[in-house]
## 1
Amino acid sequence: MPQFGNENLDVPSFDAKYMPVHVFGLIEYTAFCLPRSELSSSIQQPKAAELNRLREKICVVKIRTHSPLDQHAENERRVHDLISRSGPGDDANKVLEGMFLPLTDHGTTNGFTWLVMEAFCPSLTLGALSRHAWDNTRALQMPRAFVAHVFVELLDILETMHSQRRLAHGDLHVDQILIDLNPGRERHKYPGIRIIDFDAAVLEETGGKGRFASTVNDDRTRFCDVIATLADNQLPPSRDSQVTDHLSEDWYVLRKSMWDEKPLSSGVEGTNVTLQEMRSRFGHLAEQVKSQASTE
């Protein structure tokens, strides 16, 4: 039986199918699990090959109270259904495929809703990577080409979500973005990224046009916050006095724009530049930065 803190969660339909391996949720029950169908009772001390096979079967499970007052799990399930929707001539899934954790199973029992999603190991969040890079004892700067990669990938994801799925995330930040470090799943020679946790997402068809538009704008400012965090550790960007080439100067302009457009906690009044305008202004620059890095 799953246990969260001192509380046992009576979810028999889940417990019959999955075995928790590691619990890491703080607000809700979230855990890495193994499908019981993959476990062999005859193996007491599994060999390396069997452990590797099991590692590939690990999934991530979220369990939440199912009630009219807590619709987060149901909301996330609807979002995954919307993301996976496709039809003739629908190009959205070509962009979204591989950028989310696919929902593989779900159920409701005894007042709980559980969602099972594909997991991948190893992985880490952009937040964990950024905190490691900017640790005062290391003083490492995030590679410019990787920041440019995240800039382009996040633009692709958010523009497709907003325009073709009429979906806004609502809680985008560096710890909601995973880096996929598995070999063979790179995108454009860089690690792929995936957005997680859609329980605060807003769908236009259920949330209404006004709330959807407001959340799209929130995604926009939080996108800028993500780039500002990676590029400058949330500090006002400054020019490198030792570098005078045009590419570095243009890159400073991009970083300064991300700082100016991030949430108003920075004390700077943004100009509400849309994601499409950001792509028009800086998309080519980001691709140029990546291209230069690949030739060095």
Note: Residues 123-295 form a domain with the Transferase(Phosphotransferase); domain 1 fold (CATH 1.10.510.10).
## 2
Amino acid sequence: MSTPMRCPNYEKLAENNPFANAELILTNGTIKVSKIVLCYYSDYFYDLFMKDLTKDKFEIPQIELDHFNCYFEVMQKAETLLLDGEFIVKLTTIQKELQSPYLESLIVNWLDNNLEKSYLPIIYETACNILSQLLCQKTKMLIQDNFKELCTISSYVSLSYTNLNELFDNGFMQTQKQEDFLILFTEWFEHDLKNRKLSWIELLRKIDFRWIEYDYIVKTFMPKHPAICEISQAVAILFDAMKQQIVPVNYSGKNSKIFLFGGDNDNKSIVCYDIWNKTIGVVAQLNNPKDNHTSQRIRDTAFVFGGNQNTTIETFNVNTNICETISLEMPSKGYGLSSAALGNKIFAIGGYINKKKVDSVDYFEAGKMSWIKNGSPCKPVGYHDSVVVDEVIYVTPGDGCFNMQRFDDREGHFTLLKESPTKAYGSAVSLFNKNILCCGGYNDRNLNSCYLYDIVADDWMSIEKLPLKVGGQVVGSTVPLVVNGDPKTQFPELITADNFPLFPFLLFLLKSPRILVDQLNWGIELNPANKVAFASDLNIPVPGWGNFDLDGNLYTGHINTDTRVGMQVRPVNKLKIKPETLVLLGQNPAFRAARKKAKEVLIGKLPYNYEPLKCKPPYCNPFVQHTAVAVEFEEGDDTFFIGGIDFPMPIGPHYSASSYITLLSKNDFFKLTISF
């Protein structure tokens, strides 16, 4: 059901109002109005008309005719009028005089729900002149929240120096790219070169030039803004700033956000971590799943490629959070690789293809949609990283090569450098004052070590360790830790790492699982050496029948003294597996279905045939504590008397049966057994 118009005859009365009893003389025109209607909607007009009830002409030079018409239309049409940015600018302007609570709430509601963000700067400029600060603070917050996007779709040239300076305070500027403010302030200055020069110089002093690259200022910024070269004071600021630069090329040291693309547990989400606000959340979704892949950024665009699931390449704009799949694809499904950017070239280095390490290096240029081969590293390497220092790529240690490797595109070949002390792969890699920091990693166990590689000295230096051990667990390894080749196994179809991810946690010995369990059995047996044994064998030929074979034996003495001790403890975690890993594994539907069909098996046996624990493969519940201890002792003071006679008995002319008489004695207990 449609909402009825508050004033259905507005259009007719707006053209010719026979009930008008007052005339408003505004800045650029006059309009006849009905006093009672305006008083009904506004305290401003009520107070104005009540000052002199006989007066019928009122001068209001602070209000423009166009703004008044906009206000009057909004008040008459109410909810049926579709507001746009132009309307809101005019309403904000007239709000300075009217101070209407209803009008203020109307503007705030539009700000909360509108998509026309390009109007925010001019609305902010107008709102700064209103006595109530609600609109001003609201608009400022929206501008700062959408700053990256607004830099591309809007302009701040209409703002006064005071309002611009207040809008971008020092605290907010520290969280953003400084290049954005250099461009913004310069465009604001170029809008009025004559009157804004001194204010522009003050705005430049707010920028932290340490985080703006030298090449950007000289090769990009100054050629685009030649007018600044005529202002000696500004040139001095820029060149002095370039001396302070502490960020290497291709790195913007004050990036306030870190983006994570895909991964094992959530292979399509793009997660953003805001360093300054210490917040994290999903900001977008990749078009294609990515796992064991790599990514590289050129200016505002991140290229995401590689992985063991597909060959697609996606771009992600860090300002707009928009993903696109480009037409160029990877030559093959390469995973565990690294990447590095030199200019417009993005290099893909090493990794795996079809479960085999590769030693290839390929690159593509963002403007040229093709892959180009570019040599090979000294040794094939996977699960590593690459960084760029002074236009040189350094490939960090990984699986297959524990040396640092250096590649200079101008030389066209790799150089093998010093080996890592940890011989680990999957380390976290970052730059520190043009040296390379490698933290954690994995070499049969997770590590908490940190080593700094000095590029000039070609040497590694140990620094303070991490508080926790961290490392990468390789998923889908081609060499499982255990392969159960028994065709009668309960899981015959799950004996490869591709199909069954449980191998790091499972060991089959004698067809019995030892899963996160420690077991120890030991014993001592003492022989008193007083045993006596007799044996005989008598053969008597019997004519017409055969041999009569009579065997006999007799054993007597004391039994051995035995002591046996055993223990079993669960859970133990020699592989340092995280509980979260086991929980995720238990959530796998195929895993649960297979375990439900499995039969219980014995985990271990302790002395006196004690069997304390059984479970269903492939693992027992690792979160329930279990401890078992068993002790068995046999004193050895018993005597034994064991003997027997074995002889044949004829049952026919050509047949015989074997008979055996056994005599057992233990602790004065005798047992006679006759067998046929």
Note: Residues 507 and 514 are 6 Å apart (CA to CA).
## 3
Amino acid sequence: MAVPAEPSDRDVSAMRSTQENITNRRHVHGSAKDSGMALFIVLVLVLVLTVVITQMVFVTQVEKRISQNRQGFTHLNYALQASSRLVMQKISEDLMEDLGLLEALEADAESGFGSLPGGGNGDAGPNTGQGSPGEDDDRDGENGPSESSDDPVDTRHDAWAYPIQDTINEVQVSGEIIDGESCIDLNHIFELVLFEEDEEDPADGDGEEGGDGGEGDLPDLGDLGVPTTSGNGLASSANFGTASTGSDFEEEYVLPEQQQVDDAEIMLTRLIEAVIDYNQENGFSYDQTPDATDAAGAIVGYVFQRVSDEKTRRIRSLDSLLQLEEVSLELFDGPVDPAEAERLAEEAEAAGDSGDFPGGLGGLAGGMGLQDLPGIGSLEFLEQSGFSLMDDMVEGPIQPIGLRHVMTANSSGKINLNTARPEVLMALIPSIEDFDEAKEIAWQIFDRGNTFRELSEEEEALAAEQALEDGEEPPQEFEHFTSLNQLSQINEDWTVSEIGEDSIADLLKEDLKSNVVFASQYFTANLEGTKNNQTLAGKLVCARRDRHIVVLSWREMKR
């Protein structure tokens, strides 16, 4: 058997060299593989860190922006609340001035006494005096209520009635105050057509006559009623700060006669027709002209539906009318004024990012602040506020109007003859059946409030002395109503009557005596604050109660 030969040294050396080469190649391949994995892990970590850091930066920027917005709206909120307090101060000071207590109050403040004359709690003060010619005419006879310290008077030229425009902590605030008694209240549309001959019937709501009227004439309206007024001329539904759902309020509801329903619809139809006529006459065109009859019928039907349920009887917002198909936004707010829209667009473009405030809700020329304006109520002030100065009167700026300018959901139910628009007055004089004649009469009544009042020599001397002390032009005095008998002073022809017919003055007195007052009780302030392209709107509803101002509601809306 052959024995294998031993490998030579050369062969051994070659084998060892081959094994070393194989080993080295394995090490090289392993190192390259490990290096590729490490690079991949590093890239993933870098990507994750980049995403995390980017997200953190984004969240930080978002939170910064949110904080800035919150801070901006906080400033707007504070500015609007300050303006709302200014509104209440204006209304309160006007009442004190009418009562002759403002000077005494200022004297007490200077002497260190803060109480009001006659007791500061307001309980012992005089009635703030709606001066209702309905019940007050019984007291004063044909003369109606007369002006005295106990009978405050509110007019459209009182300090509170002028537009608000001011700067508070770099927030530009504008707004307007509307008294509820200048508008027809949805909650009292049946009262406004309830005349004396209707009031002679029993009003307890439980008699056969009232029940039969509800079941026979209005079979589908359910338990329907209308609120009556209390002896002080205030609507019984006036419950400051709370819902009017008490038993006293419910007990005073009586079923409306069918005639009341028809008359309420006729009243609202004329009101809406007058609004449409005013806009079209002044060049404010509707995209689609509303139907006054359909809109009035829908509103009356809506009120019926609400008052039929005691839980929804009290209508608290006029905006609820927008849910009616017959009441368009154009009818509610009024048609767009092309000139005003163009002006605002130009001012907004000119302002750019500078933060300048374009004139808006207030309507003051050039967006002036109160500190730049002359004395409130002076002729120069009126001219800069958009009024046209005539020889013996002024004419207010012509702007489109809608239902929100002539209707409300917060008032005493009466109409202030000194502040009501002609369209409202037209709706309240059904005895003047011709539309054009009623329009002419209503505008003559309205224009009396814009007519300069002739001052006596003593009043002129006092005004001159006051102007010298204050260093500015005194407020212009205007005519106003304190009695329905003053209607006869507007036009001498109104007192002329033919045999067997009443004169126009007599017809007006008969229509208005149960529904008008000369002072206002409820006020709605629409405010708007703007800063750094942020806008916040606020709506304040308040009421006078004795010598106090009571806040009924406050609502803020971002825009």
Note: The radius of gyration is 37 Å.
## 4
Amino acid sequence: MVLAVIGICRKPVYGDSICSSPGVRFVLWWFLRTTCSFLGVIPIAMSAQSEKSSSKSLESKSLLKLFNRVTRLLKAGGDQTAIYTSIVELVGVELRLDRCALLLVDDVERTSDSPELSVASEYCVDGLIPIIDKHYALKANSELFRFFQEAKPVPLQDVAPRSSGANHELNALGEDTCSKSLIVFPIVDGQKILGCLSMHYCIEAHTFSDDVLEFGEAASLELARFLIRERAQFQKEAEGRIFKQTSFPALVLDNSGRVRKFNDAFQAMLKSSRKDFVNQSILDVIPDGQRVLDAVRGLSEVRPFVTLGEVLVGRSEGASSHFDVCISSLCRQNDLADALLMFVPPGSKQGSMSAEAENSKRASEQLANSLSRQMSWERWVRQIICKLHATLDRDTILQTVVDGFGRALGASRCLIVRTDGPASPLVTHEYAEPDISPLGLGRTGQFPTVVVSYFRSKVAFIPDVAALERSHELSADEYEYFSDNGIKSMAGAPIVSHGISYGVIIILESAPSRHWTAHELDMLEVAASQTAVALSHSQQYLQLKDQLFNMNLLGNLTQQLTNTLELVSRSKIEAAEERRPTESAPPLSLRELEVLKLIASGLANREIAQRLFLTESTVELHASRIRKKLKLKSRTALVKFACDNGLA
């Protein structure tokens, strides 16, 4: 049993794992190794690996302690450069590596277009030449690029052996470091490459043990979480500084005209003793508030910006203070949205604005655009999700998804491709721009299966379809299909809920080499997950509907069977009465026969009355008439008569 669990927890370099978290898998593997050692059990796979592994590999317990030390360094925070330096030095010393380096992507948003890795921190033993600040390109859509996106540890010599004509983007890393053995652990955020952690043996070649591979995966995952957290915090602080420290007075109004946020310059402009304007109406804040509020309510998708001249913002000591107000919508939708207000002195428009003011204004515009895009996407997502969960019809759900997200992302086409049917892949629903002819539903033989399989298990994008043809991943006929329909790039996500796959959603773009941003991929992932949930609800509704129909059908069948049995029973009674000789048949009515049968079955008069819905005296009257007609004197004689004549 221990061997089976160990086999489950192991993860080869290019394989998948049942344990999704490398950190959890690493801790579980250390526990099992310790248990096996205590019991004197040595797994066969572990024994074979230990013969091949380097003599420098550490015990699992030491690796667990090293992993905990790395985690504590990342959680402690502080200067990023110092943290990176401490981690690579700690890993290099504890693992007895000749070199350990951390390579990071400078511009994360360009990861879909040949990202460039630079050496941010490095540890190396004495006698080796440092490679700090060197840069290495990573070609998009290459084999190595896909390994990085899948967060798989990559032994570079296995990806591209050093032979004539064999080369890849990071081959120069091995040459610059004079590495005899080299492995890199990608640091990724979903499909976004953030960097990698590299381990080198430069003096002698060694095989990296499975324990070291597990440790490297867990450490790279912790580094990815740290980088994501730090960059999100940096972006938040940067936006806050732009808003707070800009030299122009600024505030944000909600759609009802109330102040949501303001900076110090706005408070100084009003020269007011009031320190907090949040939730105050603009009508109560400045004298010309009604004019500003009307302009804010007049913003729309067609007119997202407006400038008001000579707006009265205050009066003090008999003098009036006027400013020009630049108003921009923070959401480019037709409905009401928040607005950013910038108060500019009237003379600034004639070019007397200082360089600092220009930079501040530009930064404010960038902030407004960023907030506008983000709020626009969030509003689109909320609206579409509400529509998804407002119906239980499968076709309505899928058509809502392709129409909504096709328009939200400004895509040329949006498809739902079914992958669970007998004729897969099948295009079931489609959105296309008005000036583009649709691909047509049900074209199973034309839409390439290799492209659908690319999106079955993850959210991904293909920035350039031509690159797939050049790398021979697409056949000539498949590439011709995309080329004839003007498809240049695409993105997709699986529609999966609780392990059940309903298909994939694919966005097709005719613009050359579209850059898919992180926000767009997040929207696509949310769309796919919510669509899967809505489809599961629809499926449960159909199952419940079928069950109710079957229950109703069963009830009808049961009623018909009961009626048939009653008819058969009555017909038997009537047939028995007809077969009995007329002269021997007692001259009794139907009601009297019923009473006689019940008397013969041993019921008392009260019970008979309840059965026939009669009074007890009526039953006694029927019994008396029966004795009189049959010329019998007692109730016992009635029972004997009924038994002799087959009435009991």
Note: The chain has four domains: 2-234, 246-371, 389-542, 590-644.
